[in-house]
Amino acid sequence: MAEITQVTFLLNNQKYGIDILNVRAIEKCDGITSVLGAPDFIEGVVNIRGEMIPVYSISRKFSLVTKPLDEESRLVIVNLPELPVAILVDSVEGIVTVSESHTTTRPKMMEQTATSFVGRVVELDKKIMLLLDMDSLIPQAERKAMIDMLTKGKHDEEQ
After folding, report:
1. Cα–Cα distance between 1 and 5 in angstroms, integer?
2. Which of 53, 26, 27 has its CA nearest to residue 42?
3. DSSP 8-state secondary structure symbol assigned to residue 33
4. Cα Rg for the chain, rounded, in angstroms?
5. Helices H / strands E in the chain, number of each
6. Surface-to-core class of residue 22, CB atoms within 10 Å of its CB (0-12 exposed, 13-18 middle, 19+ buried)
7. What sign does the CA torsion over 115, 45, 6, 59 have?
8. d(Cα 78, Cα 36) in Å, to the nearest integer?
């Protein structure tokens, strides 16, 4: 049976997983700079090794309670085909490998727009972990908005 490896993290006391193949790095939340006029789901940008990366807030996107940044807060840097994105999370728990046979499709109640980013569900230690589907979490329109936000400053500087 195939296995899947997930980077696990907490957000609003719920455990989530992102396929490790999508994760480039995990970073501390140092140096997030807010951007005027940025989309609501963007916390700001961060410079990681000379690359400006948008900081994506799932909490802001879905109007969840936003926990203030602290020592446990992390940025999970994911590689999307269009650009890297830093997903702001409350804390990273670690890496877990589970058999695909232990995953199930998301329940019908999660097929609404607000939870459509959940791809699969895993039960670990009697707790539910939601596996994120990056294509549903960050749709094309949001990716384009982030690219526009990042390139606007470059175009302004060139003029």
Report:
1. 13
2. 53
3. B
4. 16
5. 3, 11
6. middle
7. negative
8. 23
Which strands sit side by side in the sheet containing 74-79, from one edge to the other?
Answer: 23-28, 74-79, 84-89, 51-57, 42-48
pLDDT of the residue at 115: 59
d(CA 42, CA 86): 10
Q: DSSP assignment of 60-80, as one string?
A: HHTTPPPPPP-TT-EEEEEE-
pLDDT mean over 31-57: 93
pLDDT tens across 81-140, in order?
Answer: 999 999 999 999 999 998 887 787 766 655 555 556 777 888 877 788 888 988 888 999
The Cα 142–Cα 153 span in angstroms is 18
Residue 107 tokens, joined: 């329940």
Whether the Cβ atoms of residue 9 and residue 15 lie closer than 8 Å to each other: yes
Q: Label residue 159 by pLDDT band (50, 70, 90).
A: very low
Q: Which residues contact residue 35 at a Cβ distance below 8 angstroms, ignoring those fewer than 6 apart?
A: 42, 44, 45, 149
What is the set of domains in the chain, with CATH numbers?
A: 3-158 (2.40.50.180)
